[in-house]
Amino acid sequence: MELHLKGRTALITGASSGIGVGVARILASEGARVAITARRDNELEQTASQIAASIGQAPIVVSGDITEPTDVARIAAESATALGHIDILVNCAGASRPTEPSASDDHWDEAFALNFSAARRLTQAILPEMRARHWGRVINLSGSMEPRSLNAATAAKAALHLWAKGLSCDVADEGITINTIAPGRINSNQVLNRLHPTDKSRQEFIFRNIPIGYFGEPEDIGHLVAFLASPLARYITGAVIPVDGGMHFFAH
Q: What backbone phi and psi angles, to 5 degrees, belong to 35?
């Protein structure tokens, strides 16, 4: 299927590892010009080199900390300057934050800064130009809304869901769509090293909870991102779409 992404431009956060890398690789392979951002310079450069080797065009690297408002403004400005403008924003950055009932404000503030406020600020920085051109795509990476214990990131992602839904209504008639993807278990450092550090634990979890029979790959998310970013997905907005192999809700 031709997704008509050649010549489109995209900024992807959290692109130094995991899902962000998979998204960057797929969008680049579809012909989009890509800028990638994260805090880790070395890993960003490795991502850019790998994509250049396989696709033939290296992404623009703009390192920075998206939990810092001044860095958000700089990342948005540098990316827009390098690409000319930004058609597609993919907010991939985020991380789980298991939380004690007595957790401090600092713990909660950090979780919301990474998992909600960063996406909101970056979108707000880029949205005016999208509105001026009457075309844009914002795609957020989220998580389960079926918590089994307290996790500050889950609360932040709940805020992300409803913020994105409300925003999608405000800009829908301007050619801009806002959608959210809720990944299940994806082969990434966070899943493989923290949630399921042994092959036995992975296989047991898959057997109990994932009907499709395996963990997904970052590119499985990337393919959906590419479709949602395309003109073909013009009638999809305000959605939260799971990509989880049919994982049972209670398993999240």
A: -115, 140
Taking the C-alpha atoms of 124, 125, 130 and 132 in order, what is their torsion angle to the nearest 10 degrees? 100
Q: Which ranges constitute the DSSP H helices of 1-68?
A: 18-29, 41-55
- Name residue, tokens 């990944």: 183
- Provide the residue ranges of all domains of the chain, joining segments of one domain with +: 9-238
Residue 4 and residue 230 in contact, taking contact as beta carbons nearer than 8 Å = yes
CA-to-CA distance for 240 and 2, rounded, in angstroms? Answer: 24
Please provide the CATH number assigned to the domain covering 9-238.
Answer: 3.40.50.720
Q: What is the pLDDT of residue 251?
A: 53
**Helix axis angle, 218-229 relative to 18-29, nearest 10°?**
50
Which residue stretches of the chain have pLDDT < 50?
none
Beta bridge partners of residue 186, listed in sequence order:
216
Give the N- to C-terminal CA distance of the chain in Å, as an integer.
32
